[in-house]
Each structure stands twice: as structure tokens, then as C-alpha cells.
Amino acid sequence: MDFNSILTLLRPELSLLAIIIILLIYDLFAGNTAKKYFQPLAWVLLAAHTVWSFCLTPEGTLFGGMFATTQAASLVKAILSLATLIVFLQAGGALAKAESSFKTGEFYVLTLSTLFGMNIMISSGHFLMFYLGLETASIPLACLVAFDKYKQNSAEAAAKYILNAALSSGILVYGLSFIYGTCGTLYFANVPSLLDMTVLQVAGIVMFLAGMGFKISLVPFHMWTPDVYQGAPTSVTAYLSVVSKGAAAFALMTVLFKVFAPMAAVWQDLLYGIIIVTITLANLFAIRQKDIKRFFAYSSISQAGYVVLGIMAGTAEGMTAMIYYILVYILSNLAAFGVISTVENHTGRVNIDQYNGLYSTNPRMAFVMMLALFSLGGIPPFAGFFSKFFIFTSAAASGYYVLVFIALVNTIISLYYYLLVVKAMFINKTDAPAPHFRSEKALVFSLAICVAGIIFAGVASCLYGGIGQFTFGM
Amino acid sequence: MDIPMQCYLLVAAVMFFCGIYGFITRHNVLAMLISLELILNAVNINFVVFNRFLYPEALEGYFFTLFSIGVAAGETAVAIAIIINIYRNIKNIKVENLDNMKF
Predict the structure, then answer these.
(1) Which is more confident, A431 or A367?
(2) Which chain A residue's Cα is nearest to B47?
């Protein structure tokens, strides 16, 4: 292992670390005038990092196999940092307020730290690295959820998040200890040949799945999600719902493919049931929500079910479909959250009723929201349709017809509640629609990226083929 | 006198499930945090015992335990900071009072 290969393979992590340190020092030592340039500096640095990340790193291992990266992993890292950039562009308005402007630096540094943890988790080659990445991702997120220090909801959400995260990682490592006890090693490269379906190993994999289920918020383990999403500041909710979830889902897939492939029968049965309850229950609960952030929490739980459907097949097509799904989901959800945070910043409210008649006063905002919801629901010309289509194709190709049918029926249910919001914006009559507001340039720019992405990813087939070059199956 | 490995594992399993039970039944957020510590310590015992009895030639289990202790400390620090923040907001740390948001 030479210094050069560290620089090549660890490049996304190293450049992220450099950004974190630069921002931390800048935030500490900059004077009041220089502080004004903090956010633009952070945006520029992260944009440069994102562009650089899209030049993928080659496949390889470092540190005796502790760190193992693939091209698919580095593609996902690039997608996640793009999502983080969009979240940052949208966070400006909320951070400019007096009660949180002095905490701007903390917001950026903490968010980037969690992104760093997710990068480690995605390309780990040993369960210790995996665990450390998971914790590096979830502990700073608890601080971010508690960001609105004087709001009771924020504190409550943070307590629920940290307790659930700690419990889930406790269960996860208890399962890992069984794997260690039966295999004698935790290297991803060595474990598969030692798996022999003993009871202890099955218990270990069940606990591992339960722990990861908490992170991705699959149904029996989803109870924290709506509360945390509702209580957290809106930009943190956006981050939680796309970046954190996408990273955990991809990491779960890598581990299941690379390490637990010999026990596919066990985890495929488990996931089969989990996916059905996840999609169905989350859709039914989403229908009765009045708070738009809670509504999107349930929507994101059901979307997580679709994401995990890509794992079921265990093929390279499944992985391609899943990465594509994560990309499209990130763009659509962040477009929606951009609108939500603007409306929240200007009216201070997050009820769905608030969106009544939004079209009459803010036609462009309403239009962006509509595009995002159409894409999330899976209406044809937009990217959301194709991402769902590829996921279903990959699962059906492996013979899961009943599962795909149930997911398909649920897509129709989800269309109902997504269109409820569209109806509120365009059709519902109201005496006092939200006033017309001008939004900051950064937010408009981020929405433009999202909308362009939703439309472009829907019509450009080269994107799906391009992702397909890097993926691998079990 | 040699104590067999199963005894250690039994202790760890009892600790783990006591932790889960405590996490579900306690009404105080701090007590829930203590239950979490029980869970994490059960994991540590498991790793050390497996390493000591089954794979004494390598140190993976010991190292996992060291890191896990460090992570648990970090987690507790953040959790306690959050609990203090809750106390400042509502003047107690009862779980029943953390019910602003539900369903």
C-alpha cells in the first residue's frame, strides 16, 4: 500500500475532510464582514467537491482490506454530495434568521461530518469501519435535529432520534457479535466463505437487518421517522429523508451482496415481508396526515420500500435500478422540500391547508411542487415513472411477481395522496392564500437543478445505461 | 477453576434483554439511556469473550470493543446534551411529556 493509492482511492473522503477543516477554521477565525462569505464559500467548495467526485475513483482496497471501494460506491458518493449541495442551497433562507444565523457554521460542519461518515460506511471493507461510519453519520445528525434549540418539538425529535439510533445500532452490533463468534473475522472478503447457516448466524443477520431497518425506516422499525421529520428544522428533514436514507440503503445493499450472499434465502424472505408492510402501511398512514412534513415522512417511508425492492433481485440490474431510483428520489424530494421550506420561511406554517390556492399567488412554486409530486408518484414523462419501472422490472426478472403486483397497487394509492396536495394548490378555494413571496437566488437555483434533473433523468436513457456500467450483482 | 464460555455469553444475553426491557418500560429518558448502555456493554462482553475463547490468535474482537466503548461514550454525550435541552424546555425529562407529536 503506497501513498499514491491512498490519494486515489480515498479522494472523496479526503477532499470532504479538507472542506470540513477549512470551514471549521474559517467559521472560528473570520470576522463579521468575512462571515458574510461563509455560505458562498461552503457552496463553492462543495460544488467543486461534487464535480470532482463525479470523476469516479477506481476499484480497490486500502488498509489491509478495511476500506474497499468500487466504482458504484464512488458514484453513489458523488450523488450524495450533489444532494447535500442542493440541501445547502436551500438552507440559506432558514439560516439567515436571527435565531439561527450565528449557528450557520455549525450547521455546515455537522452536515458535512455526517456525509463523511456515510462515505466511510458506503465503502467499508470491514464491519468495524461500517459501524464507525454508521455512527459518524448518525450522532451529528442528532445534533442537527436538535438545531432549533428553543423549540420543544426540535428537542423532542432529537431525543427520539438519538434514542432510536442508539438502540438500533446496539441491536445491529449485537448481531455482528454473533457473526464474529461464528466466523472469527469481520472482513467483508473473508466472512462469506465461513457462513454456514447456523442458528447463531441467522440470528445475527436478523438483528443486522433490524438495525439497518431503523436507519432506512422500514416499517416495523419506522416509528421514529414521522416525529423526527416533523420536529427537525426543514432543511435537516430534507437531508434526513434523502441523503441519510440513500446512503443507508446503498450500504445495506453492498453488505447483503458482498457479505451475506451465501445466506440470500434468509434475507430475501425477511425483506419480502418487510417491503410489503412498509409500502402498504406507510401509504395508508400518509393519507391521513395534515402536516406536510409528516406527510413527506410517510411518503419517504413508502419510497424506502421501493428502494429496498431493488435489493431483492440480487442482480446488477437491481443495483442499477436502485442507484437510479435514489438519484431520482433525491431530485424529486429535494424539489418538494425546497418549496416547503420557502413556504415555511415566509408563512411560518407547515400545514397542507397552507398550500390551498398557492397556484394563484405563486404559480412557479406550485408548478415545481407539482412536478416533484408527479415524479414521486410516478407519472410517465417524469423521471419517477422510469425509476419505478426499472425497479419493478429488476424484481420481476427474478420472479417476484406477487411482490411487484402489490407494489404496483400501492403506487396507485400513493398517487391519491400526492395528488391531494396538487389539488390543494390548484383547485381548493381559499379566502387567504399564502402571499406572493420572492425567494433567494440560491433556492431558485437549487430548484432549477432539481427540475432540470427530474425532466432530464426522465428522457435521457443514457443515464440509466451509464450507471449500469459500474454495478455488480451477488 | 475455569468458567466455561457459555456462562459469559449468558450474562451478556441477560444484560442485552434487560436493556431492551428497560428501554421499553422506563418513564425517564435518563433511565432509557442507561438501558442503552446495558445493551452496548452486552455487545462488548460478547466480542471479548468470543475473541478470548475462540480466536485468541487475532485481536479483532478486542479492537471492536475498544472502538465500541468510544462510540458509546460519544453517543451518551450527545444524548445527555439533548436531554438537558429538553429539561430547559419543559422542566422535566419524563417520557410521557414528550408527546407533542404523534400518529
Answers:
(1) A367
(2) A177
